[in-house]
Each structure stands twice: as structure tokens, then as C-alpha cells.
Amino acid sequence: MQPESLLLVSVLTLLLPFLSFVVNIFFGKKLGKASSIVATSILGLVLLGSFVIFYFKLFAHFDSKVIVNYFLYEFSNEILQLKFTWIDLGSLQIKVGIAIDNLSATMLVVVAMVSFLVHLFSIEYMAGDPRFSRYFAYLGLFTFSMNGIVLANNFLFMYVFWELVGISSYLLIGFWFEKKSAADAGKKAFIVNRVGDLGFFVGIMILYFSFGTVLFDDIFGSIAQGKLPFNSEAILTLAGILIFCGAIGKSAQFPLHVWLPDAMEGPTPVSALIHAATMVAAGVYLTARVYAMFTADALTFIAVIGAITAFISATIAITQYDFKRVLAYSTVSQLGYMIMALGVGAFTMGVFHLVTHAWFKAALFLCSGSVIHAMHHSAHHLGDHHTDPQDIRNMGGLRRTMPWTYRTFLLVTLAISGVPLTSGFLSKDGILAGTLAYAQLTGGWRWFIPIIAFASAGLTAFYMFRLLIVSFHGEPRTKVAEHTKENNWIILLPLFVFSILSLWFFYSPNPLDAQSGWFPKIIVQPKTVVPTETQWDFLITHSFLGESHSSIGKEAHKYLNHFEEVMHHLHYPAMILSLVIAGSGILFAFLFFQFKILNPETFKKQFPFLYSLSFRKWYFDEVYNAIVAGGTVLFARISALFDLYIVDGIVNAWAWVTRNFGHFIGHFDNFVIDGLVNLIANVTGFFGSVLRHIQTGRVQTYVAFAVFGLILLIYFLI
Amino acid sequence: MLEILGFVEDIQKSLFLFLPEVFLVVSLILAILSDLFFKRLKFFNAYVALVGFFAAGISLFYIPKDQVGFLNSFVVDNFSIFIKLIILLTNVIIILMSFNSKELTHNKLSLGEFYTFLIGMTFGMFLVTGSLNLILIYLAVETMSISSYILAGYTKEIKRSSEASLKYVIFGAVSSGLMIYGISLLFGLTGSLNIVEINKILQTSPIPSLAFFISIILILMGFAYKISAVPFHFWTPDVYEGAPITITAYLSVASKVAGFAVLIRFVRSTLVAETSAQQEIWTLISSIDWTFVISILSFLSMTVGNIIALWQNNLKRLLAYSSIAHAGYILMGVAVMNQTGVASVLIYSFIYMIMNLGAFICAMLIANEINSEDINDIEGLGYRAPVLSAIFSIFLFSLIGLPPTAGFIAKFYVFSAVIDAGLIWLAVAGVVNSVISLYYYVKIMRNMFIRGIEVEKEPITFPALNLVVIFLLSIFTLVFGIYFSPIINWANFSANIFVK
Amino acid sequence: MGIGLTHYLVLSAILFGLGLFAIITRKNAVLVLIGVELVLNSANINFVAFSKFNKLNIDGHIAALFVIMLAAIEVAVALAIVLNIYQNYKHINVDEVDTLKE
Amino acid sequence: MQSNLGFPILTLITFLPIVGMLLVLLVPVFKSKEGRELSHTIMRWITVVFTFFQVILAVLLYINFDKTLPGVNDISSFQFVEKITWINANFPIVGQIKIEYFLGVDGISLPMVLLTALVCFIAVFPSFVIHKGVKGYFAMYLLLDTGMMGVFVALDFFLFYVFWEVMLLPMYFLIGIWGGPRKEYAAIKFFIYTLVGSVFMLLVIIGLYFSVGSFNMLEMMNPENYKPDSIFAGMHTTIRYIAFMALFICFAIKVPTVPFHTWLPDAHVEAPTPISVILAGILLKMGTYGIIRIAFPIFPDAAGYFQTLIAWVGMISIIYGALCALGQHKVGQKDFKKLIAYSSVSHMGFVVLGIAAMRPEGVTGAIFQMFNHGTITSMLFMIVGVIYDRTHTRGLDEFGGLATKMPVYTGIMMVAFFAAIGLPGLSSFISEVLVFLGAFNTYPYLAIASGLGIILGAAYMLWALQRVFFGKLPERWNKPWDPTGKEFPGDDLIAREYVAFVPLALIIIFLGIYPNPMLQLMNASVNHFVEILKPYVFIGSFLSGM
User: Which of A10, A336, A334 is nearest to A150 (CA)?
Assistant: First the structure.
């Protein structure tokens, strides 16, 4: 297969979903139900395309060559690129384009797969919605933008599609805009993301200012040649962190994680697609994309942010009752994991977790969708509109009524909890090992990262099993739960696919070691380009550092760099530790909710503060509403009033003064001049007695004033 | 004996210079006579006057220029001819205007005297523009003043008209008294009444500054009262409001222009030491900064006029104050004290004549129809009389000085002259004033077009003659706003004041 | 010592002031007009005095004649107007003729 | 250089509307009701036809325009030039007064010409709802059209000033007669504000004339042409700074930038929809156009001196305008139009910031933003007009759930709103990005601060979106808009509204995806412009630092 045609395929993969968007927007009304078929089949093509790209990228070999015309192609085994001038300023052009490398090829498959299955799922789930076709249109728009992010080979395109996924997520969260909460959630998501994007954009500005281009390879190239923004490593670090701000927003990292749980207002398949599997992972993807330009400090920042996020959201998830909210917080927590992994240097494992997480989290959400769908139907059937179909306290005993959903849910719960034989175990175990290695290599306060990592691993296992047990085990707690029925195959099929994908053998023959799988071979940590003194020495890849620097000498060449070496050595301890912790988490979950040996209520009583802290989500929303939102609105109100009264007021006051001065002058000769005449009279004080009876009429006052004016004139000019 | 002969010869020669005035005098006499015989024919004198003005106008183009006559007391130059033409045009328009003026036509007394006095006043103004002798100046000013007193009170059974004339006559008498007192002082200081000789004497022999200054100021006040410059403007609003609107229009244009003419000639001939050859900058005699004096007058006039006008609700009174303000703008040109200044004054006077007369005719027509001069009564007029209102707004925009109307050109050249002379503060004051003036001019348009749309009143029709007149005037206002080279060239040609 | 130019000038100045004062202060229109006369005549005194004492030409005398003549005309017209005022107002108090005002 | 076409196209495009105006004035208005309706229809279609001719001419200009010629201060590279001596009078002292009828376009003015033609054509359709004084309305409309077009093609300063002022009078009446409840106040306020600015411009024009001896802008841009010891001779003199400030304030009032903006909300709120469209779509651009065309090239030294101040003004306008717009949700009568008016202040702030950057990206972004803001804000105001025509209210609180009642309308509206937010794929994104990239080069901190404006922009726009289009539809709007079904058949947009909206939406999307057709138009000029200013950037900067 020729590289050009491969790029052509990728362009098609990019544009086809947009076609689905256009078709459904303009002809949705006519198509009616058919619109879903159209959209899904288009997505089928996209999926096919992405598989093709994946296959050829990995197994075909391209000899690098360059064809230059209006479009500029660059091929090599590493990367296939297509560039063209988007913004032509005469003196300087802003070039953009798309690139395919292993990372993007992999990501494409993930996106296409999840999107396709979610389309499938939605056919049944969204059936009968008044804006059925609109829904699929938005899904198409989203997939288009997501593919754009994946394929972008420059910051500008990245930003463009970054905003576009934001807007499509806005539209989909607020899809049921009659509900105020939904509309609010959409707005919140968009604006919070904007905050992150501002940082992202400032980062882009810094880089453009320094290098005059937005292309990744150009920028990295010039950094590698030692050209730094503002010739300062601090600014380079800053730029990295600013770029990462985009990820903080999109991937709902602390402190901007507040929008994601609210985003659950959207239809559940959307949550699965956008807010679990793909879009929120875009932040991780971005971080991985520009990984090469992060300095050690920037990486530390990233790791810390990831760790904090992972822990906070895990603690919150423990006490939530809304089925989807628990999953949402677990998503945030898992994203924290990935970010942390990238931060500590476990690049491969971070990306790996992104992939595995995509599958099992999508599965989890679709399961919840299936559950909620069933609950909804039975509630509808019973004519019961009070019981919230998403509240796990209203569920229970679903294991019997919905066996298949239960089985898949169980499988993926095991995966996310990191039980062996699952994909989740492979990736998570790798990350934990990475954190340990990181802590060991750097030491000091950084030990808190692995500690937090393990703690949240345990919490994850705990709250996931809590969810499983409370909703599926035991006896039905409501009639609604009792009358739920299993859904049809359209809904179940995607569940099965995802749950199967959560098994180990897809990734590695050895269920205990991801390193032996194929994934680490295709996703290799990029060579960092930042100046040597600003990077972790243990992340310096041997290939261009040379054997001598390696501490362990001979066998070093087995590993990419010192870090991987240490990580490898720490692999088994990490595994055992994580198994123990995860196991204990599961055990406690059973003790609490299955066997009721321990009573959660007593814990609430004993640690009211901790409980409410967790239950009220660490009060983030309250604080933000009070300070940020409230502050802004107050300020806005003030300035509006200011504008209404002060700024305008000044002008009007001026006008008033002029007019009334005019009025004053108008009456001048009535009051003042008489006075002046009297004054003159008194000064001349000659005919005093006569003057006492003076009554000047108007024309005479005129004369008097004229004369007085004359005198003034003479007086002042001499 | 020979002296006598010389005088006779001189007078014979001078009669040619005097041809237009002669025509005026003849028509004046004719008018008086006809008024005795054909009392029946209301407008007979109007035609007599028109003929006289026409004859005078024609003769203006044939009399020899740049010559002095009558013992160096009277001069004819392009400057005076320009002014005289403006005055004649004003007269013609006023006469056309008077045909439809209800105030004038709807009363017992015949109009004969009205036109007679018009002619008389015109004669006075003609003299004023050309006279080089202080006494002649005084006589001419008095001639126009006295006729104008009578004209102001012409509709004598109307209370406010008579009141106007009373105020006018008292104020006028006082200022003429002050002027003649000043003249007497100047005569005492220089020993001559001929301003050209005075100028020579001043250049040769030094004179006590204070007395000289006072005398000049007193004389200037006589002129300032004619052009109603602040602080000698107090008669203006009352007289303008009280007098019949035709007369108001006449006073606001003709006598003002005449006043400017005599003012400029007096300053140019008396106070100017010498003029630099190529640049025509006037350097003034004596220590006093006359430019500053006149700048002050100009500043006061426009500011006070505009600011008080903001509060007027009577159309005539508003236009009166606006005319004070415009006097201020024209004075800017005088203050410049060079030929550019004079040219800009001429340009402004000519355009001011067109637009102000137009505005006054519109005001008169409106007042005739709705029997009120209150601008609150013209609400919705734009829908009852669209054409008239549109034309009226053209004049108002011209008075504001917005392109593409002639008013803009007038202001443009005045400001150019002022900036060129470096009086930037005066220019700034001028533009600020035109912004202030915007407010009250627009107030009229607002009432015509924006207010009173709801009330559906029957449309108004106007006498064709005056509609034609204002239509022509508005056309000129626009044409001169877009293509103004002729005026400028003509004004520059006329800006050259003849000095013997 | 004889009477010099200064005396005349002072006299005329006093006349001038009196005239102005009369104009400004008198109620009766006729008295106001008389004030005007005083002013004009003060000017006349100047003219005549100047041309007598400064050994100048006779222009001054001529001027005085003109002024006298004009004063007469002016007063005639003014009196006519005052009469008219009387017809309209039934009085000639200048300060009560003030319907036209701001 | 003669016009590249056979005929004087600029004169044509400028004065065509005047012809239309005369025709409109000639249309007789019959007494009978049908008769009046008929003549009204005739007037409307005359206007449509003439403005459409203008659009065609504009397209001709675009096709025949040579993108390689810079223009700006170089007469030889201006295009479609028409140069006739207009006034030629001899003056003492001043000497020959020569005023030329001098028209021409370059890469800076052509986008504005296109915009003017487009918006004037589009805005005719909302004008169809005018039923009172139709003749006067369309006459004024066309006169306004000429005034605006003239401003963008005039290269003689005197001519420029004439057009600049000509536009005031129709605007005054259009707001004053056909406006809302407080129309008188708004109209006179607009009038006085603009006049205050322009009279000072007049003084500067005269001063420049005496220094250069000609009203030709291009000659004024060349320092050699200044007579020695004339007012504006030399560089970096105080008088030049003052003159520049006078010009800048004159234009800033028009833009309007904070603190000269208070006329805008009133004018917008009171003006009828089509006039708001023209006001926001074209008139505001005159301010920034004046800055680029006149203030900067004629006083480059002063421009460099005040550069930082201007950048600050731009930044403050962005933030302050956005905050005020956001405040409209809390304060006052919560008027939809007022919100959009303030958003204009904010968006024009980007233009000012971009110009102040004095960088190719910045200036290109600024001009492009002018064009985009023209199209986008026109759409926004027409969107408000649509519901106003149907419900006769604009209160943000009085609506909700329109998305269910009027889906197509909502779709159109989303394009406009997201464009206003600066969503990628829509034109304003490109221009704002360019402005930021340019501004960051010169004023990194100001650029970052202005970034807040984008967040606020998203906030107030989405807020409005939610209030008006989302949520539940109030009971009172449940019935069809007009029961007769004559004026608004169906609840959604009607034909002439489609005609108005669709072209704009298409342009916004197209330029958002492929901006080059517009950018390449200005490249040569912008780069030349930046070259001219380069020597003066940051010389003895006022408010230096930052």
C-alpha cells in the first residue's frame, strides 16, 4: 500500500464522520429512524479505515521520501505526515496537517471502535427520542473532531479540534436541554474547559512566538537544537505546563475535574463514548503527543496533578449513590492514573492504561446504560415516576433479572480493580511499578506518589465492588428493580465486545507481565528533546546517551533507559503489593455490603467529617460557585452598573452642566446685570440717595451691561 | 477759486463711482412719490425697489474700481462690491419673501413705506461699505440704523413689534452716541477724520496709548453693536423676536454684513501699519493686541450665542441667538487680520446669507401656516409638509456646518484661516461651539420629523413663490457645498481691500 | 488762567457720564432720549473744542453740525416710536416694556 | 494608474445608491391602502436591486483585484484609482487650494468595501418590516449606504471627511424616526458623540493641509512632503502627538473603545433591527479602518509613542465589554440587544489590540476580525430581530425553549453564537487567533489578559443561549406567532429571513475553514503597512514597559 493512499484513507477516516453529521443535520427529519442506520454504517466504514491504517502503519515499511507541491508529504517508518498551508500571511505561512504514527494509529482504532459500538448501542437506547437524528448528528461531529485531535500533527489543529470536541460534548451533555440541570451541566463543562484551554492557548502562543511554527516536529526539532522559548528553560517548563493545562481541563484533572460528574446529565451512551473512553482521554493523548518537550519539572507537576486527582476522586466515589456518578469519579481517578503514569515516566504504561481503560470503562458505562434503560422501562411500565432509576439504593438483585449485564459488569469490574487475567491488571500493575521506580530513583517527598497510587488502587477496588454488590447482589429494594428485564442484543452486543476486550490475552501472552506483550513494542517512549540538564537522567534513552553512563552497564541495552530497568526490577514487588491492596479493597467491600459484617452507618457516625468531605465531593463545587463564578458575576454586575450609571452619567452630567450654564446665562441679564448695575451705582456712590430708588428696566440693563462690558474690555486690555 | 473748481471736478469724477447709490436714491424718491399716488397698489413699491436694486446691481459691474472720490471719503473696490452684491441679493430675497408674509400683508397700512425704508436702509449700507471718512461712516451707520428702527416697529399695532423698535432705538442711539464720542476723541488725537490720513498720522507720530485705545474701542463698539457681537448683542434677541420675521431676516443678514464690511475696512485702513509684500500679513500699529480683542469678542459671541440658544423655544429667537453665534464665527475671520481672513469672512457672509435667509423664509412660512413660532408646535410637521421640512433641514444642517452643505465650506475656510494664523485655541473653541450648536438645530428637526408622527394632521400647502425661492436657495446650499471653487475664487478676488 | 482744552474735555466727559447715567436710570422714555442727547452733545463739544484749540481744519465744526442734524432725526424717530409705545401700552415707562425677555 | 476596468467602478459602487435614492423618492405614494402597499413594495425592491448591483460590483472588484500590490502609502500601487481635480482655488498665503476627487482601493479597504456591499444588501430584508414612512426610510438607507461606501474608497482626506459626515444625518434619522422608545436620546447621543470626534479630525485635517499643501492622504504619509517649519513638520513633536490623539479619539469613539463606548448600547437598543445591523456591521469598522488607513500611517511616530496605550485600550475594551455583556444577565432590563452591543465592544477591542501589535499577524487578524465581526454581528442582530418581530420583546427572561419551537432558527443562531465565541471552524476563530499571536509578540501579558475575554465571551453567550433557546417554552409563546399565518407562516424562519441569514452563515463557515481568499487579499498591504511602522515601534514609548 502506497503511503499516499494510506494518508488518503486517514483523511477519509477523518472526514466520514463529518459527512454523517452533515447528512443527519440537514436530512435527519426526512431520514427519521434511518438516520441511525446511516450514521452507524458510516462509522462502520470509519472503523474499517482505522483498522486498515493500524495494520499498514505497523506492518508495512515505507522508505522515507518527500514530495513537495501545495501539499507536502513526509514518509518514514516512524511517521507519515501531510502538511499544507492553512493561514497564508504572505510574509509567513502557518502550516498544518495530519500525521500517522503508532500512537495515533492505535488511538484511531480505540476511538473508532468505541464510537461505532456506542452508535450501535444508541440505536436501541435513544429509540423514540424526539431529536433522534440530531443525536446521531452530534455523535458524528464528535467522532470527526476526536479523529482530528488524534491525527493532528500540530498545535493549531490540536487546539481547533480540541474546541470542537468541547462543543460537541457541550451539545451532547445538554442534549435534553429542557432539563435545566442538563443545560447547566453543558455550560459548566464548556466554560471550565475554556479555562484550561486558555492555558493551552497561551502555551501555543509562547511556542509560536519562539519558533514561528505550530508543527510538532519543527518545534521539537528546534528545541532539540537547543533553541529555547525566550532562551530560558523555565519558560520551556512553563510552556509545557501551560500545554498540559489543556489536558487538565479536558481530562478533568484536579482542580478542573468538577465538570465531568455533572456531565453525566447527558445520555448514557454519550457518557460512555465521550466522558469515559475517548474525549476525556484526549488530555492524556495530548500529554503523550508532546511528551518529548516536557522538562523534569513539568513532568513532576504532571505526576503530582495526576496523583492528587486519582486520590481525591477515588475517595469521593466511595460514598456516591448515583450509579453514573460513581463511574464518573472512577473515570476521573483512572485518568489521574494515566496522567500520573506519564508524569513519572511510565509512558508506555500510561498509554496502555488509556487503551485498556477505554474498553472496560466504556463497558461499565454501557452496562450502567443497560441497567438504567431497564430500570427506566420498568418504572415507566409501573407508572412510577418517583424512584430515580440511577440511584443504586433503588436497585439490588439485578443479578437475577439481568444476568448478562451482570456477567459483563462483573468481568469489567474485575478489570478495573486490577485483578489478574484482565487487561486492567496489566496496565495498572505497570503504572504502580512505574511509580515505585520513580520514587526509588528520585526519593524524598516524591514517595507520596506511589503511596497515593496504591491507596487509590485499593479504593478503586472497594468502590467498584460496592457498586457491583449494592446494585446487583442482594434482594431488590424497589418494585422497579424487581420488574427490570434484560435488554435485547443490540444493547448487549457492545457490552460483550468490550468485556471480551478487557481480557489479558489480547495484549500479552503472559497474564502477569505487560512488558512481554506487543504493546510496549509499538508504543515506545519518544526521545525527549529538552536540554540534558533539564531532564531526568534516568529517562535519557541509552541509544544516544551511550553505554558508559548506564549504571548497570552490560544488560542495559535490553532496556530503553535506566527507568525501565528499575521498573522491571520492581515489577514483582509492585504486583504483590497491588494484589494485596486490591484484594483487601474487595474484601472490605464484601464485608460491608454483602455480608453486612461491618456497618457503613457506624463509620459515618464515627468520622462525620471524612464522610461529608467525601460525600460533598470535597466541597469543590461550593467553593468554585462561591468564589469564581460568584466573583465573576458580581464583577460583571458591578461593571454593568458602572457603565450604566457612572461612565454614561459623566457624559450626561456634562451635558446637564452645559445646558444649565446656558440657562444661567439665559437669565444672566435678569439677575446678575441688575446686580452689576447696582454695583456700578454704589461704586460711583455719587447720587446715593437717588440710586436708592433705582429701578432698571430691561433695555436699560442691556445698555448698562454693554457699557460695563466695554469698561471691562478696556480695563483688562490695558 | 481753483480749489473750488478742483472740488467740482472731483465730484463730477466721483459721481461715476456713486452710480449704484444714485440709482438707489432715484428709486427711493420714486418710491416716496408712488407711495403718495398709488396707495391702492399694495406691492407697487416692491417693483420700484426691485427695479432700483436691479439697476444698482448692474451698475456695480461697470463703475470704475479701486478709486476714491468725494475728497478721499469714498472708495469703490472689489471688497465693497462683493458686500454690495450680498446686500442687493438679500434685498431681492426679502422682497420676494415679503409678498407672502402674513404679518406684513394682513394689516391696515399699505406696504409702500416698507419698501421705501428698505431702499433707504440699503442706501445706508452701500455708503457704509465704501466710506473712508469717519463722519461719513457715522452718517451711513445712522442711516441704516434709523431705517431699521422703523422697520423693526413697522407692524406698529403689534405690541411686541413696537416694543422691539423701542429697545432697538434706545440701544442703537446709545451705541451710536458712544461711537461718535469715540470718533471725536480719535479726531482730537489725530486731527483728521479720514481714516487713511489717520493711518498715516498714526504711523508717523506717536499718540497717547490709553486715549487712543479708548477711542478705537468706542468706535469698534459701534460696529460690534451692528454685528451684534457679545457683549453688545443684548438688543438682538428681543428685536429679532419682536420685529416682523422678514425684517428679522433682513437685519440678521444685511445689516450684519454691512457691519462686518465697515469693521474690516476700518481695521484695515486705520490700524494696519504695513503689509508684507508676498504674504499679506497685517502688522498692526500701537501696542494693543487688536487680534486678541477681536478674538475675545468672537469667542464670547459664539459661546454665549450658542449656549443661550440651547434654551430657546421660539423659532425666531432661536435663530436670533444662532445669528449671534454666527457673528462669532465670522469674527474669527476678522481676528486673523490678513487677506485670508478677509476672504474667509466674505465666503462666510455669502454662504451665511443663503442659508440664513433660507432658514428664515422656512420659519416664516411655517409661522404663517400654524400661527405660532413655538418649536413645540411644529411637531409632526415633517409629515404634514415633507418638502418644506426637508428643505428646512438642509438649511439647518448648513447652519450646523456639516458637509456636503455650503455651511461646512464656510466654517472650513474660517477655521483654515484661523489655524493658519496660529490661533489654534480659537479654532478649538469654534469647533466645540459647532458641536454645541448641533443640539438646538437638531432640536428643530427632531420636532419636525421624530415627534408627533402619531398625530395624523392634514397636509399643509405653501405659496408657490416662496417654495421656489427656498428651493433655489437649498439647491445653492448643496451645490456650493460640493462645488465651491467659484465662491472661493470670487472671494479671494474681492478680498483685496484698496488702500490709497 | 484761561479756559483750556482740558476744561472742555472734562466738561464733555461729565456730560457723557451724565448722559449714560440718565439713559441707564431714567424710567421715562423721553428722559432716556434726553440722556442720548447729552451723550451726542458731549461728542459735539469734543469736536468743536479740538478743532478750535489744536489749530486744526474746520472738519470738527462740520462734524458737529452733522451730529446735531442726526441727533434731531434720531430723536424724531425715537419720539415717534415712543408715541407708538404709548398707544400700545398707555404709558412710556421703559422699564415696564419688557414682554420680550428670556 | 487608471482603473483596471473600462469604467469608473468605484464611483459607480459609491454613488449607485444615490441613484436608487432618487428613484425611491420619485415613487408616488397613493392614497388608497392597496396603493400605498404597492408603492412600498416597489421602494423595497428598488433598494434590493440597487444594493444587489453593489454586491455584483464588489465581486467584480474582488475578481479584478491584484493581490500583489501593497497600496497603503504608495499611490502607484492603488487599484481602480480615479483621480480628478475637484476644487482648484487660489488663496493668498495658503496659495493653491487643491482638493481632489480621489478614489482607490488596496488590500486594507477592499475587505471593507466587500463587507459594506454585503451587509447593506443583507440588511434590506429585515427592513421589510418597516411600515411607517417607508419612502423616507429607504431614501435614508441608500444615502447611508453611499456615505459608508465613500468612506472606504476615498483617498483624499477632504473627501473622506465629507463622506464621514454625510453618513451622520441619515443615521440620526434612521435611529430617531424608526427607533424604539428612547430613540430621541439615543439618536442625539450618537450624533453628538460622533460629531465631537469628527470636528477635531477636521482641525487636524486643516493642520495637515497647511503642512503638506494637499489633502491627499498618501502625500501626508510621506515625511518628505512636509514643508519645513509647518505645524506638523518633523517627527516626535508634541503637536504631532496631540494631533494623533485627536484622530485616534475621533476614531475610537466610532469603534467604540472604552471609555467612549456609551453611545453604542443606547443606539443599538433603540435602533430598528436593520439599522443595528448596519451600525454594528459597518459603522464600527470605520473607526478601526480610520486608525489603520489614516492615524497610523500619517503619524507613525505618534503611533509608536502611544502604541502601548492603544494596546491597553484594546485589552480593557475586550475585558470590560465582555463583563458588561455578562452583567446584562443581572442588571437593567436584561435586553438581548444590549448584550450583543456590549459584545461588539469586546470584539472590536480585539481589532484595536491587533492593530497596536504592529505585527503582520496582528494587523491581518485585526482587518480579518473587522470583516468577521461585520458578518457575525449582523447575524446576531438579525437573530434578535427575528424574535422581536414575532414577539415585540427582547427581554432575555421572557423566552426559553425556542429551540423546540424554531429548530432551524436555533441552528442558524448556533452558528452565529459559536462564531461569536470564536469556535474553530468559524471565521472569527482565525482572526482572533491571529490577533493573539500578533499581540503576544508585542504584549505577552496583555494578550494573556485578553484571553480572559474569550472565557467571559463563552460565559455570556452560552448564558444567553440557554435563557432564550433552552429550557421550557413559556406558556404565552405556545400559540403560533400570528394566527392569521400571513406574515409568519409556520413558526420557523420565513423566506426573506433565509435569504438574509444563509449567505452570512455560509461565508462565516467558509472563511473559518479556508481563510486564505480573504487573507491573501490583504497580505501585501498589511506587510507593507507593518514595514512602514517598523522603524517607529516602541520609540520613546508612552506607558512603556508591559
Answer: A10
Q: How far is CA D149 from CA A35, A543, D110, D526, in A?
A: 47, 66, 11, 21
Amino acid at A460: T
Q: Judge: D191–B431 Cβ closer than 8 Å, yes or no.
A: no
Q: What is the pLDDT of residue D389?
A: 85
> Mind telling me how many Å the CA of D204 is from chain B's nearest CA?
10
- The SS3 of residue D480 is coil
Contact call for B163 and C99, based on CB within 8 A:
yes
> Which of A91, A171, A206, A245 is the best residue to mutate to test the D interface, defined by the most D CB atoms within 10 Å of its own CB?
A91
Neighbours of chain B (3+ CB pairs under 8 A): A, C, D
Are A700 and C97 an interchain contact pair (Cβ–Cβ within 8 Å)?
Answer: no
Query: Residue B332 in contact with residue B342, Cβ under 8 Å?
Result: no
Cβ contact D–C (≥3 pairs, < 8 Å): no
Nearest to A699 among B171, B210, B231 (CB): B171
- Treating both helix axes as pointing N-terminal to C-terminal, what angle do A403-417 and A423-442 enclose, rounded to 10 degrees? 20
Residue A683: is its pLDDT beyond 50? no
pLDDT recorded at residue A492: 86
Q: Quick check: helix, strand or coil at residue A75? A: strand
The confidence score (pLDDT) of residue B138 equals 93
Q: How far apart are CA A232 and CA B481, in angstroms?
A: 63
Q: What is the pLDDT of residues A538-550, one digit of tens each?
A: 777 655 444 444 4
Query: Residue A255, preceding bond cis, omega within 30 degrees?
Result: yes
Asked whether the beta carbons of B27 and B66 are under 8 A apart, the reply is no
Cell numbers given for A335: 485518568
- Inspect the interface and report whether the beta carbons of B170 and C73 lie closer than 8 Å: no
Start-to-end C-alpha separation, chain C: 55
Which residue, among B81, B94, B103, B19, has the nearest Cα to B50 in the 3D structure?
A: B94
pLDDT in tens, B157-198: 888 888 889 989 999 999 999 999 999 998 888 888 888 888
On the 0-12 / 13-18 / 19+ scale of CB atoms within 10 A, A435 is buried
Element (H, E) at A518: none
Complex ipTM tops 0.90:
no
3-state SS, one letter per residue, for D41-59: HHHHHHHHHHHHHHHHHHH
Mean pLDDT in residue range A391-411:
84
- Dist. CA A599–CA A592, nearest whole Å: 6
Per-residue pLDDT reduced to its tens digit, A259-287: 888 888 888 888 888 888 888 889 999 99
More confident residue, B301 or A506: B301
C-alpha cell at A632: 465573576
CA distance A362 to B104: 98
Q: Does C95 sit within 8 Å of A677, measured CB to CB? A: no
A494 with A121: CB under 8 angstroms? yes
- Confidence at residue D93, expressed as pLDDT on a 0 to 100 scale: 57
**What pairing do the DSSP bridges indicate for beta strands B74-76 and D79-91?**
unpaired
Q: Which of B338, B403, B489 is facing D161, going by the closest CB pair?
A: B403
Percentage of the residues of chain A whose pLDDT score is greater than 70: 88
What is the dihedral angle through the alpha carbons of A100, A103, A104, A106, rounded to the nearest 10 degrees?
A: 120
- Write the pLDDT tens digit of every residue in D68-90: 888 888 888 888 888 888 887 76
Tens of pLDDT, residue by residue over A215-265, are 888 888 888 888 888 878 888 888 899 999 999 988 888 888 888 888 888
Fold of C5-90: Helix Hairpins (1.10.287)
> Is the Cβ pair B167, C97 closer than 8 Å?
yes
Which CA distances in Å does D412 have to B68, B454, D415, D489? 81, 36, 5, 18
The DSSP code sequence of A333-387 is: HHHHHHHHHHHHT-HHHHHHHHHHHHHHHHHHHHHHHHHHHHHHHHHHHHT--SS
Work out whether strand B272-275 and strand B282-284 pair parallel, antiparallel, or are unpaired. antiparallel
Among A34, C76, D307, D394, which residue's Cα sits nearest to residue B169?
A: C76
